[in-house]
Design a protein that fits this description.
With 177 residues, the chain is an all-alpha fold. 69% of the residues lie in helices and 2% in strands. α2 runs antiparallel to α3, α2 runs parallel beside α4 and α3 runs antiparallel to α4.
Length: 177
């Protein structure tokens, strides 16, 4: 005679326990792997941002902005290319956060503190161009003012994504209103 509990044999209880435990074990293992993958992706993105930011710093130290009278299209493109490179990397990282490829709030908040100063620095670098003639033709059809507005819109979009994850009490770090 088999041992029974509430009309179930020990074998029945073991089978029920296995059915309940299997999805739980899978879920815990999957969530741990998913978080590790998010950390890995975030670290790779941040490494690329730091590399581009370092190149920007080196370029910025060697190439101060020219006097207002010396600014031309070629010089503008040359000076904004390192800024654009950093912003492209931050935009990619922001896209992954926005699409929840990196969705763990702890991971996002950690990198928030790393990305925001760099994003603020890029915005400050763009602000330096506001001293130049806003009607300067940057391309055949685009003026400096139009390009700066596009940069500000681009940066604002990234701020909006990242500020969804800031901790309560964090100060908004925007340079331009």
């Amino acid at each position: 005679m088999a041992f029974e509990i509430f009309g179930f044999t020990v074998g029945d209880l073991a089978a029920i326990g296995a059915l309940i435990a299997s999805p739980l074990i899978f879920w815990f293992g999957y969530s741990r792997t998913r978080k590790s993958e998010q950390i890995k992706i975030a670290r790779e993105c941040m490494d690329r941002i730091k590399l581009k930011h370092q190149k920007f710093d080196e370029f910025d130290d060697k190439n101060p902005h020219p006097p207002v009278s010396d600014m031309d299209t070629r010089k503008f493109v040359e000076l904004t290319e390192p800024i654009r490179d950093v912003l492209l990397e931050i935009e990619y990282f922001s896209y992954l956060v926005d699409k929840h490829e990196i969705g763990d709030k702890i991971v996002i908040r950690y990198y928030y503190t790393k990305v925001m100063p760099i994003l603020g620095r890029m915005e400050h670098a763009i602000n330096r161009f506001s001293q130049y003639d806003p009607t300067l033709q940057v391309t055949n059809v685009t003026t400096l003012n139009e390009v700066l507005e596009k940069y500000y819109e681009w940066i604002k979009g990234m701020y909006d994504i990242w500020h969804r994850y800031r901790k309560k009490g964090d100060v908004r770090t925007r340079v331009v209103p």
